[in-house]
Write a structure and sequence with these properties.
The structure is a homodimer of 498-residue chains.
Chain A (H helix, E strand, L loop, with lengths): L1 H31 L6 H19 L2 H10 L6 H18 L3 H23 L3 H22 L5 H9 L5 H24 L15 H15 L8 E3 L5 E5 L2 E6 L6 H19 L16 H15 L3 H14 L9 H8 L16 H17 L7 H13 L25 H20 L2 H7 L3 H10 L9 H9 L6 H15 L3
Parallel strand pairs in A: 1-3
Antiparallel strand pairs in A: 2-3
Helix pairs in contact in A: 1-2, 1-3, 3-4, 5-6, 6-7, 8-14, 8-20, 9-10, 10-11, 11-16, 12-17, 14-15, 14-16, 16-20
Chain lengths: 498, 498
């Protein structure tokens, strides 16, 4: 009888993840292919299917399976699926249905209000929506519960195991090191010349080069595809259908090339999850931070390295415009690694990127904690940007309104980006103890690098929690020293300071 | 209270059609964009969602709404939706659940077995599957019931109101006329020279011309898109997202150009259904035959007409290769209208097309009626092709295995193609009483033609039954004389006989 209940439980999870795949495809389609007039109708369909997923997650049927099977199953996949299902059940069931519905409606309204407000640099028109979103998230955090800081309850959604206590210890340390490094690069006598990268680089040539690199990374085009979008993303519909999108800027190839490799890193993760996890809630990245460690590993530790360009610069030149043909690698490599404090997170270089994240973390933590209010955000944002990066937005479009996250109610998400970067540095160090990463990068042979990541990270999906993955690989928890040491080594060499 | 039940009924229909839209998008994606390795997982998801639709259609909840609301609602849309829901309920509920599941499994297996058998010209490997499909369809027809011929029960699924009795009266008459016409064209002294159409016509140029024609027809690219597939189709996800696909043959532009216009005719129908019918089962073409009348009207009555090319030949030449630049219209127009008995239905010309349909109709009618058996099909097929068209397949790939329909269990579908053609001729005659069709075609101004079709056909969706639409427009039922007279007039002129 337990066998039958188990089978029915797994069937229900399969139904749930089938809706998930359909929702994923609709989302991909809306951003890449769907005709604009069809969007309204499609949103309604998305609403119906999302509601269905929510109903399953909080159903009496699901509760019944959990109660009956808990502590009563041998199969580890079923065991972990039960844990995931129970956590989702508890989390969802704690929010009153009426509030959940209001919140979903608010989210979709807020996102379009944000887009308009950003366009017009008009924070005030978005403020009332953001206030409500913050209010709901405060309430939800209280429903869910936490030990020390209300914000911990939100962090848990994206990076289970990481708390305010951890971040407040790690982030200031990293900030201090990065700020110091930044100053050193700015004062260095040797400065890269990014103007050498200028010139018209046709979209199709960028696409051909990007596709070639994706193939070399081991991205399987028979289980994926590459399309163009305004906001690049990777999405796993199932492990055999993981799609990447990218954005082309004909004036700056870096957007597409590094962007595609970044999304390719996410996609490799999803393509290489153990097929046995298919149609369970485990067939997904284990956390936002671990996901980001994969994309950032490929984007920065591989594709922005000197060895990578030693090997791939000749290939690059086959697709690149005339102006690159006589540009020596010694000028090209520093140029693609220029450090320059800037206003926009997604355009930031490797060194300043984490500082952007810290601005956001401190503000959202204080918002959720009730220490600041939404109306204070623009000024606080600008002040922090000036303090940490030395640049000050001239308007809210390039300031507090630049990111979509808050408009969807995603508080607690931003730290994942910085955590992912630190994880990537820790993985990078561990990998180098086992294989000769530099040599493989210089040979343009990524098979063993990809295999190492699959073996240690990808295959597990959600079978292991993020800090367990980290610990199994490195023997320690979150440790920012590896990132600081990597960045320091890299920029000392490029900027020639000691 | 009735108001509340009505709302809940319409909500359930909305849920059902939301799954329908998701299923439609997945189907489109599988044929156009999906990576090949993802197909298996996707098929499972399709299975889950199709099962969901089936559950809703046959649910106690649905039965309850039907019983409570029937004869008890004022809104005509709700009224017709009730009728549709009840018909679907009755039809589906009459099949035992076990048999339905077996049949669904059989269908998907049979389709892949058919593809393999066709590839290898091996009817025997497909025969056992086809035998089972026929057996199920015989049983289903008996469950559903019929007055005179068991095949009527299947015909009803595609063309309600049309029966064996009607077809057995109409088809032989048409066959006689077409055979006679065919003989006249073959014996005529004037013969078109199709070799003038030969030459390499690049895909992208064909696409540009096809898109331009679609736009002129009034196809809204903001509510649709054009992609490439092996088997062209049009699919309406919602009225604001109706997609067209086409196939390019660089050696023969006719495949893509006439194919795109054909699918464009289907798409115009779906784009112009009254938006008030959205999320009901009425937001769809009223029958396969009426749908086909729209595609064939545009493909044949418009795009294969002399007036069309008088206007569009100059535009065509802008995209066409060198060899067309000195080819006079007087040679081009007869060439694209060459009549030639051939083996493959989808490559048939306007005159012989219906003869292909009749071969299929007679065989499937006899199969379902139990007068012939599956094992006899190949020989009977070849014999009928020889009798009606004077050509004999050399293998089953170009004979009985050429079409996908039977492998999906779609018996009763084929007659819709011929009916659609006759309907189109009837609509064409009726339209000409109200607007100067020839003049508009020659001017390349299709606005009024499209409006006429929207007003008389498109807008209603399933609000009107097919024969009601026909009768409201023409004042009569199915009448093949218009088609015969149209073809006779056309070919007399091209082949110059009297």
């Amino acid at each position: 009888m337990t066998q039958t209940t188990q089978q029915r439980f797994m069937d229900l999870l399969k139904e749930q993840s089938s809706y998930g795949e359909a929702i994923g495809l609709m989302a991909w389609d809306m951003r890449t292919k769907a005709p604009k007039k069809g969007i309204d109708g499609r949103s309604e369909v998305l609403g119906v299917l999302s509601q269905k997923v929510h109903e399953i997650q909080t159903s009496q049927e699901m509760r019944g399976y959990i109660d009956e099977l808990k502590g009563n199953v041998a199969d580890p996949i079923v065991q972990r699926s039960l844990e995931e299902a129970e956590e989702t059940y508890e989390k969802t069931a704690k929010i009153p249905t009426r509030e959940y519905r209001e919140y979903v409606t608010l989210q979709s309204k807020a996102e379009s209000m944000w887009a308009e407000a950003k366009e017009k640099n008009d924070f005030e028109s978005f403020r009332p929506y953001l206030e409500k979103l913050v209010e709901y998230n405060r309430k939800f955090a209280d429903y869910w519960g936490y030990d020390e800081h209300r914000y911990d309850a939100l962090l848990h959604n994206y990076e289970p195991g990481v708390t305010v206590k951890v971040l407040d210890e790690v982030f200031p340390k990293v900030r201090k090191a990065l700020t110091h490094l930044l100053q050193q690069t700015q004062e260095a006598a040797t400065q890269p010349d990014p103007s050498v990268l200028e010139g018209h680089f046709p979209k199709d040539k960028q696409a051909q080069f990007s596709e070639e690199i994706l193939k070399r990374m081991g991205y399987d085009f028979d289980a994926g595809r590459l399309d163009e979008t305004v906001h690049p993303f990777a999405i796993g519909l199932n492990t055999n259908d993981v799609r990447v999108t990218t954005k082309y800027d004909e004036k700056d190839f870096r957007t597409a090339v590094f962007g595609t490799i970044h999304e390719g890193g996410h996609a490799l993760y999803e393509q290489n999850i153990d097929p046995k996890l298919a149609f369970t809630p485990l067939a997904d990245g284990t956390s936002m931070g671990i996901h980001e460690s994969q994309s950032l590993f490929w984007e920065n530790f591989v594709a922005r390295s000197e060895g990578f360009w030693k090997n791939h610069y000749e290939l690059f030149k086959k697709f690149a415009p005339e102006s690159f043909q006589d540009l020596p690698l010694e000028k090209f490599y520093p140029a693609v690694n220029e450090v320059k404090p800037s206003l926009i997170r997604i355009e930031a270089d490797e060194l300043t990127y984490c500082l952007h994240i810290m601005v956001r973390y401190e503000l959202e933590k204080a918002l959720i904690g009730g220490e600041i209010e939404v109306k204070d955000l623009p000024e606080l944002w600008n002040q922090k940007m000036e303090d940490y990066l030395g640049v000050r937005p001239q308007n809210d479009g390039e300031g507090v309104l630049q990111d979509i996250h808050w408009s969807g109610g995603d508080f607690g998400y931003f730290p994942s980006y910085a955590l992912g970067y630190m994880y990537a540095a820790q993985l990078n160090t561990a990998m180098r103890k086992e294989i000769d990463v530099d040599q493989f990068i210089e040979m343009g042979d990524f098979k063993q690098i990809k295999s190492w990541l699959t073996e240690n990270v990808h295959q597990y999906g959600k079978m292991k929690k993020p800090l367990q993955i980290l610990n199994d690989i490195t023997g320690e928890g979150l440790n920012p020293d590896y990132l600081v040491s990597y960045l320091s080594g890299k920029y000392k060499k490029i900027y020639n300071f000691s």
